[in-house]
Each structure stands twice: as structure tokens, then as C-alpha cells.
Amino acid sequence: MTDTAIRERDGLAPAWRELEAQTHVKLRTIDSERHYRSMVAFMNELLDTVGDQEAHPLIGLLDIVTAFVDEYEDRHVEIPDAAPAAVLRFLMKQHDLRQADLAENFGSQSNVSEVLSGKREINARQARSLAARFGVSPAVFI
Predict the structure, then answer these.
(1) Is residue 76 within 8 Å of 36, Cβ to Cβ?
(2) Which residue ranges make up each domain of the chain?
(3) What is the rounded radius of gyration, in angstroms, for the C-alpha atoms of the chain?
(4) Closest CA to 106 of 136, 128, 137, 138
(5) pTM, whole model, 2 decimals?
(6) What is the mean pLDDT of residues 34-63?
(7) How many CB atoms are closer than 10 A to CB 71?
(8) CATH topology (fold) of 84-141
(9) Alpha carbon distance 42, 69 (integer Å)
């Protein structure tokens, strides 16, 4: 490794400490329920900021945080494998909702219908909105 590469790598430590200070969450493998809740809250903040902008400067950070949350949920949270539309159908039935009741979450009733029929995927903004409405992680809709 060259001296320049070593100096560049060594310069990352202060930047990493500053990033963690700004995020108020440890950006590493989740090690507790409390850490998980903090990471999910941070993921939701990033989703609010990034939305569905694939070119947003924070999309990489969102991907990393989502990977940590997914990995923790795979180990500790019993979430049955289900397509986002199936999860939505289940939650609608559980809460006794119709497509019209979700129009504001999707922009229109026809968008709800297209998601439920598999013609359209749930985007990041819709996932955030649905997660807040049903009290679940946005990850179940993505």
C-alpha cells in the first residue's frame, strides 16, 4: 500500500466519527433492540429526505442503513416472506380498509388498484406513508 493510500485511509477516521455524530446512530451491524429502533428511525429520516430520487447524494447511505436493518430483521424479526402487495392486502384486511381509504397514500385509488394487481410497485414515498399509517417498517413494502 502506498503512503498516499495510507494517509487517505487514515483521514477517514475523523470523517467517520463526524458522520456518526451527525446521525446519532452507530453505523455498524445492529447489536440490540434499542440500536435497531434507532437505525429504523434513521432509515425513515433518510427515506423522507431521499424519497424516490435515485440520484440523491444520500442514496448510498440509505442503502447501507437499509442493509443493516434487513440483516437484523433476518436474524431477529419473524417476517414471513410476502410480496409488498400481499402485505398491503393483509394490512388492509386487518384494518378493514378499502382501496379508496388508501388513495391519499398513493395519490389516487387507481394507483392503489395497480399496486394490488401487481402492475405497479410501491415507491419510497408510498412505503414511508404506509409504514407510518400501519406502524410497520417501510422495508415490508419495498
Answers:
(1) yes
(2) 3-76, 84-141
(3) 18
(4) 128
(5) 0.56
(6) 90
(7) 12
(8) 434 Repressor (Amino-terminal Domain) (1.10.260)
(9) 10
